[in-house]
Amino acid sequence: MRSKGSNLFKYITLLIITSLMIGPLLWMISTSLKEPAKTFTQFLPNPLRWANYAEVLGNSTFLKQYWNSIYISILVTLLVLLFSSMAGYAFARIKFMGRNVIFLLLLSVLMIPAEVTIIPLFLFMRELGFINTHLPLILLPTFGASGAFGVFLMRQFFIMIPKELEEAAIMDGCSKFKIYWRIMLPLSVPALSTLTIFTFLANWDEFLYPLIFINSRELMTLPIGLSLFTDETGTAWHHLMSATTLATIPLLIIFFFAQKKFIEGMTAGSIK
What we know:
It is a single chain. The chain is mostly helical. The chain has helices at residues 2-32, 51-57, 60-93, 99-108, 114-128, 135-142, 145-160, 163-171, 176-187, 189-204, 208-213, 222-227, 237-267; strands at 230-231, 234-235. The chain has a two-stranded antiparallel sheet with strand order 1-2.
């Protein structure tokens, strides 16, 4: 009897937590299909107004912002995977002077709030002529916090790979680069999948850098574009929720294809 009561309490608790997490998502989808005048007066949309999506997709500026977010996020993710895996392998397997000191300095990047460095970075990018271009949105994450986190993650993963594999490859005549490319990278797919999701998600949601470095609406990314659905006359909730629903699609696709390896990467090292 006591066990049944305990289970009932657990189920009710889980139901409440699940409702709190899924509730905003369901409201977003529901609102995206409502008529403008019934946004807060209806629980479920009736009738379904698919024209909200057509009107959002008919906005050429929104489509450009959508494309900007997609290509910038993909490009930054690929660059972070490349540089982080190479640097992580070097920190894990190659001995050189000051290796640990350099690694600690690299990790210190993660401890500096972005708001502290934003003014020096803006002045630096202005001197280079990169303001109102996508270069700051690509270079800063690649060689900033996202890159540093990637190096840390990949180094920790490479350390767990048995050294005997590397020693056997050296006896067969493999160079360091061949060991990295043909042995280490295929074995590190779970860590790379985890890094892919974290990096893509961080850049897809990035709001501060586009707000500081981009002035043109056509060059803005999706987080800034979504904020433009609110103006001095109010918020177009039906359009905003339609655009937000569309904005979640790439994230769902990335997680769907990488979820299995993502779990493996997250649990790597927890079981020996």
